[in-house]
Amino acid sequence: MEELVDTLVDVKDQDGVDTGKVVGCDFDFGVTIIDAEDPSMYLFCIAGPSSSLWGIEYSNNIELYRGIFVEVLNGIISGLLDLDNLNKYCKEQGGTGADMLNAAGLEYCPFGQ
């Protein structure tokens, strides 16, 4: 979804809200959102099935990934990505890697800077 690159989105977690910028969004490779003011700070990452990072979070569960990806897209489009709600969704769907959704960093992000 190339059209979402450079989109600003508020990323909310238990510590508050940061304004992020989408640097990559593709179903096959995943999503990476960095801090809009500090590009070295990763706010959210999720690796897709074509990424070398695939499988770290959801044990190759494509249906769980598809659902999470749709939730992330909805958050980006609405302008608010709530990580607590995303973790809740992941757990409700039987995901065991909910904590990985908060582990944003170069080692987990498919679109590194």
Give a structural overview:
The chain has one domain (2-102). It is 24% helix and 28% strand. It is built from 2 helices and 5 strands. The chain has a 5-stranded mixed beta sheet with strand order 4-3-2-1-5. It is globular.
Keywords:
5 strands, five-stranded mixed beta sheet, 113 residues, alpha+beta, globular
Count the beta strands. 5
Order of helices and strands: EEEEHEH
**Bulk shape:** globular
Q: Order the strands across the largest sheet as they lie in space.
A: 4-3-2-1-5
- What is the average per-residue confidence, as pLDDT, rounded to a whole number? 85
- How large is the radius of gyration? 12 Å
Helix content: 10-25%
Q: Helix count, per DSSP?
A: 2
The major β-sheet equals: 5 strands, mixed
Hey, roughly how much beta strand do the residues contain? 25-35%
The unreliable regions are none
Number of domains: 1
Q: Decide which structural class fits the backbone.
A: alpha+beta
Distance between the termini: 18 Å
Provide the fold topology.
Blueprint: E1 8-13, E2 16-26, E3 30-35, E4 42-47, H1 62-78, E5 80-82, H2 83-92
Parallel strand pairs: 1-5
Antiparallel strand pairs: 1-2, 2-3, 3-4
What is the compact description of this entry?
This protein is α+β, with helices and mostly antiparallel strands. The chain has helices at 62-78, 83-92, and strands at residues 8-13, 16-26, 30-35, 42-47, 80-82.
